[in-house]
Design a protein that fits this description.
Elements lengths: L1 E5 L5 E6 L2 H4 L5 H15 L58 H17 L3 E4 L9 H11 L4 E4 L6 H7 L5 E4 L6 H6 L2 E5 H11 L1
Parallel strand pairs: 1-3, 3-6, 4-5, 4-6
Antiparallel strand pairs: 1-2
């Protein structure tokens, strides 16, 4: 499929042929949901923890004798039913990550790209190189282009001036090609790819 290539000044500078096998596949929301769940689970720290009865500080002496008091039998004051006792079934240190086949991850990324094409929210720019890291100038360009919520994906490395200039612009995220992922693509309204990013994504997903 053909797609126009524009500059940051919103002028058409050419066109590019996007591969249907990557940008024209059927949109699979189920695959994208699986990949997003995998991404979010993988980034969880898993450092939540409470103290159970084995971790609570306190005496190990039996509270009172077993028989003759008329009270219930207790062997430890660190049991959950007592004040300052341990917590039952609380969160423990764990790794929330789970496995997801590479084939599913690639299919999910292809589907995310295709969804932006289907919605008409994929923009291809020639380059995002800037002569100077001026946030004010870049913000004016972004406003003129109508990118209120956009993810910009550059080539192997993001231009240093563009990265610095975009750091304080709300709603504008920047990633290199190897950082392209389903979650970041879906969380922004517009997907902006450089010509170099298109070539790298095709090479990665072919």
């Amino acid at each position: 499929m053909k797609c126009d290539i524009i500059s940051l000044d919103n002028a058409k500078v050419g066109d590019i042929d996007l591969e249907d096998a990557i940008f024209g596949v059927p949109v699979r929301s189920d695959l994208m949901a699986r990949v997003v769940a995998w991404q979010l689970a993988k980034r969880r720290a898993g450092t939540h923890m409470v103290k159970d009865r084995s971790l609570v500080r306190g005496t190990t002496k039996k509270a009172y004798r077993q028989k003759g008091t008329g009270r219930a039998r207790h062997g430890s004051m660190r049991a959950p039913q007592f004040r300052k006792g341990g917590t039952v079934f609380g969160p423990v240190l764990r790794d929330h990550a789970h496995d997801l086949p590479k084939k599913v991850r690639k299919a999910g990324l292809r589907s995310a790209l295709a969804s932006k094409v289907a919605e008409g929210k994929l923009v291809v720019v020639e380059s995002v190189r800037l002569e100077a890291p001026k946030t004010k100038d870049l913000a004016a360009k972004v406003k003129a282009l109508g990118w209120s919520s956009a993810l910009v994906i550059d080539g192997a490395e993001v231009d240093a001036n563009f990265r610095k200039a975009s750091a304080n612009i709300i709603g504008l995220d920047v990633l290199p090609t190897q950082g392209a992922n389903v979650y970041d693509i879906l969380r922004r309204d517009t997907l902006v790819l450089t010509r170099d990013a298109v070539d790298k994504l095709v090479e990665r997903l072919r």
